[in-house]
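Lecture notes, part 5. Sequence design as translation. It can be helpful to think of inverse folding as translation between two languages: the language of shapes and the language of residues. The source text, in structure tokens, appears below.
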């Protein structure tokens, strides 16, 4: 009987459902292992091959842990609110309330088809009122704790999305969803979460987390801690201008200061003769987006205010300019310009013909051309600090100016508060009521959820006001505090709030009265293993950590880091190129699953390259995987009670050792390669064995006796990769239970040891010694061991080895 993937996979998917193979009693299990994967946005017709790659890799980890004896909880859900889903609905011209459940049904079916060990009893959808009730509850907790606030702020505006974007969503001045659309700036009333208050903690914990280095580095850079000083430049007719600098050692070289166009002192300081020019410049700046301003890659622009400030170190007056590359949101909204030692200031000096003073000289013969940015130099033109190395001068100058009341040591972060409001329809309404008498009042917890009302025309428009503001009957409500006439907040919250706590909900999906049950949360969290894409390294993962810390501080959870372990998976390209619709090279997983079966497809995806790096999908590679499965299939048909040779047993134990270590380290590709090598060896063995034994009577290729002790462990090793296939093979081998009730085989270190052989060492053809080495040693290593042998050394000392002849497992002849 040949291997028929479709029949096997249908049979086992049905059986898993009937036998509830993937369900658990979450309250009672002894060895909980919470295996989390990033839930998808159901914002397309179906799963992308990238999703399948990510989920299969995480599923293998979960199944492996289960075979190790852990009680594995592997839930999934749908990040179904938000702009991705809404934009897709707009594109296909179907209301999201109709479209998204349809997409979810389709995703669910695909997830089942690829054979994930998902526990479907605990699915969540962020659009379910039973879920977003608690998303709103979290908002209320932050509001009550003073961590949610509202302010008018310049924000990034995508004219295409017609909504505010977080800085993270602006890529080189363009919208991340609309690579052709330049993001502009608007001033709007927005809700923010005060994540910056948690910046030091979010940063410090990174050291202790078992996370992929790339992810930790991305978060570290995003939080962007810099140490430096705040320096005060006195002015005659305004207050002092405070600047933040990481290079206080260069203050003697500060020859002007720059204010952000929005800086509150601009108005007061600008000299009468400069007013018109300054006004025009401010107007021009308002038309730009925030991110382009920060990047500042374009031609430098700026305008002189006609006023001066005093350099705190030199006491000399320096001109005050305004320029768009200084942002009010960063630091103090003002900078000191040190053109000799800063590239951007240097360009600015060249353009506007401003003075450049060198205050750092290189040491040794380093090229000291200006602008010279190195920390390695020593100070010049810096009064009594002349000759001091920069690293010493920075704290020394800060201390000196601090004594004069003109400086203080300061730490600054690049991280911003999280803009949480969206002027869109498809999200949880922010649970706030505005009352003229009482101000902003949170919706009482007993009144949650604030249900998202049906709205036929949900399309965002240019006004920047949420579509919910079109529904007066919905937003007119009495104030919960004074009973007077009040108005609901019409903005919805950011999708990243939905996903910042979903892992807390999964174990508690059956609890209607709490967001997460205390006992279940204690048993299952923090998450044991989290696998996802690095594109979420600074958004989702940072927000989830922040929300967890807040919930911890407010006494709702006992831990303050949600993910004990995080691993970022790689990405897949097709025939060397990024997959995209316009290139027409998108791999549609369903087509491959239909043609080859889920198990072959899963294995092929994992065979493409190291899981954490990804690989190149090429159609021609997939048939090799199928042939491998066919071979294992026939091995299970031929398995008999028979004795295995020592060589085969050694290979078996070596393979168990290697596959275990590789799967644990997510090196799925090399684990598969080791299994293939093993299968080749035992097939060869069985053919050799036939020549003399009774089995020699049989046809060589059809019915070979394969010792069952060599096959059973292989089926278990394969089970995480090809679960349906392994179940069927396990049954063929006579087992009634699921293969996932079995235990991962243990390797015997003694048996797994490399076979030692004795290598004869000759010098110029004469035997001079013998050396014990592992069988099959590579030439370079064999020669190195031979020349290191004591009895051989005296024949080669002081001589040059002209040539080495190596016969594997036999001899090394050194020609000297
Ligand atoms: Zn956009
Ligand atoms: Zn009121």
């Amino acid at each position: 009987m040949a291997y028929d993937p479709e029949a096997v996979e249908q049979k086992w998917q049905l059986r898993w459902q009937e036998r509830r193979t993937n369900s658990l009693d979450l309250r009672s299990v002894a060895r909980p292992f919470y295996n989390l994967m990033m839930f998808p946005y159901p914002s397309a017709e179906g799963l992308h091959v990238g999703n399948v790659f990510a989920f299969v890799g995480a599923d293998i980890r979960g199944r492996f842990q289960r075979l190790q004896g852990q009680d594995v909880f592997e839930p999934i859900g749908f990040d179904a609110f938000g702009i991705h889903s809404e934009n897709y609905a707009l594109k296909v011209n179907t209301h999201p309330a109709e479209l998204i459940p349809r997409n979810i049904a389709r995703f669910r079916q695909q997830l089942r088809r690829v054979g994930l060990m998902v526990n479907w009893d605990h699915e969540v959808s962020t659009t379910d009122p039973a879920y977003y009730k608690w998303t709103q509850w979290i908002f209320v907790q932050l509001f009550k704790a003073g961590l949610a606030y509202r302010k008018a702020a310049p924000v990034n505006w995508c004219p295409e999305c017609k909504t505010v974007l977080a800085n993270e969503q602006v890529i080189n001045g363009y919208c991340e969803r609309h690579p052709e659309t330049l993001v502009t700036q608007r001033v709007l009333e927005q809700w923010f979460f005060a994540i910056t208050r948690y910046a030091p903690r979010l940063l410090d914990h990174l050291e202790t987390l078992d996370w992929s280095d790339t992810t930790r580095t991305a978060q570290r850079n995003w939080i962007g801690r810099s140490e430096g000083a705040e320096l005060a430049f006195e002015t005659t007719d305004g207050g002092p201008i405070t600047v933040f600098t990481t290079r206080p050692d260069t203050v003697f070289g500060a020859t002007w200061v720059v204010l952000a166009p929005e800086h509150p002192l601009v108005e007061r300081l600008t000299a009468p003769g400069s007013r018109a020019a300054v006004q025009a410049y401010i107007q021009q700046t308002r038309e730009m987006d925030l991110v382009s301003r920060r990047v500042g890659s374009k031609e430098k622009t700026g305008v002189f205010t006609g006023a001066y400030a005093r350099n705190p170190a030199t006491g000399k007056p320096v001109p005050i300019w305004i320029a768009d590359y200084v942002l009010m949101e960063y630091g103090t909204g003002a900078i000191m310009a040190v053109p000799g030692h800063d590239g951007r200031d240097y360009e600015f000096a060249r353009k506007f013909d401003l003075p450049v003073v060198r205050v750092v000289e290189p040491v040794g013969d380093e090229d000291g051309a200006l602008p010279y940015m190195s920390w390695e130099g020593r100070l010049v033109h810096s009064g009594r600090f002349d000759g001091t190395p920069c690293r010493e001068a920075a704290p020394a100058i800060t201390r000196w100016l601090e004594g004069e009341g003109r400086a203080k040591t300061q730490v600054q972060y690049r991280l911003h508060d999280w803009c949480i409001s969206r002027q869109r329809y498809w999200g949880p309404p922010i649970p706030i009521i505005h009352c003229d008498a009482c101000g902003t009042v949170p919706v009482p917890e007993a009144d949650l959820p604030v249900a998202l009302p049906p709205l036929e025309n949900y399309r965002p428009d240019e006004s920047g006001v949420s579509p919910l503001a079109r529904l007066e009957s919905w937003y007119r409500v009495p104030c919960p505090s004074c009973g007077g006439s009040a108005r609901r907040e019409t903005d919805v919250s950011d999708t990243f709030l939905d996903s910042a706590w979903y892992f807390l909900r999964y174990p508690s999906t059956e609890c209607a009265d709490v967001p997460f049950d205390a006992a279940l949360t204690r048993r299952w969290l923090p998450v044991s293993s989290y696998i996802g894409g690095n594109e979420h390294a600074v958004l989702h993962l940072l927000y989830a950590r922040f929300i967890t810390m807040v919930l911890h501080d407010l006494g709702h959870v006992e831990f303050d880091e949600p993910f004990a372990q995080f691993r970022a998976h790689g990405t897949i390209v097709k025939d060397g190129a990024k997959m995209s619709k316009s290139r027409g090279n998108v791999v549609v997983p369903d087509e491959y699953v239909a043609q080859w079966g889920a198990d072959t497809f899963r294995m092929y995806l994992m065979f493409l390259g190291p899981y954490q790096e990804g690989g190149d999908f090429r159609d021609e590679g997939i048939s090799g995987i199928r042939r491998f499965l066919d071979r294992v299939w026939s091995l299970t048909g031929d398995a008999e009670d028979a004795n295995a040779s020592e060589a085969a047993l050694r290979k078996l134990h070596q393979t168990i050792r290697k596959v275990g270590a590789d799967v644990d380290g997510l090196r799925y590709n090399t684990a598969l390669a080791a299994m293939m090598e093993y299968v080749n060896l035992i097939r060869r063995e069985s053919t050799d064995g036939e020549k003399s034994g009774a089995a020699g009577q049989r046809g060589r290729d059809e019915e070979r006796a394969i010792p069952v002790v060599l096959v059973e462990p292989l089926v278990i090793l394969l089970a995480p990769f090809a679960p349906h296939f392994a179940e069927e093979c396990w049954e063929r081998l006579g087992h009634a239970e699921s293969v996932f009730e079995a235990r991962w085989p243990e390797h015997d270190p003694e048996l797994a040891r490399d076979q030692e052989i004795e290598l004869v060492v000759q010098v110029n053809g004469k035997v001079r010694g013998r050396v014990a080495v592992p069988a099959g040693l590579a030439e370079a290593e064999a020669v190195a061991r031979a020349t290191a042998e004591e009895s051989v050394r005296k024949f080669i000392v002081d001589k040059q080895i002209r040539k080495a002849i190596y016969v594997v497992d036999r001899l090394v002849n050194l020609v000297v």
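The translated text above is only one of many valid answers, since several sequences can fold into similar shapes. The pocket of zinc ion (ligand 2) is lined by residues 435, 437-438, 479, 481-482, 484, 486 (CB under 6 Å).
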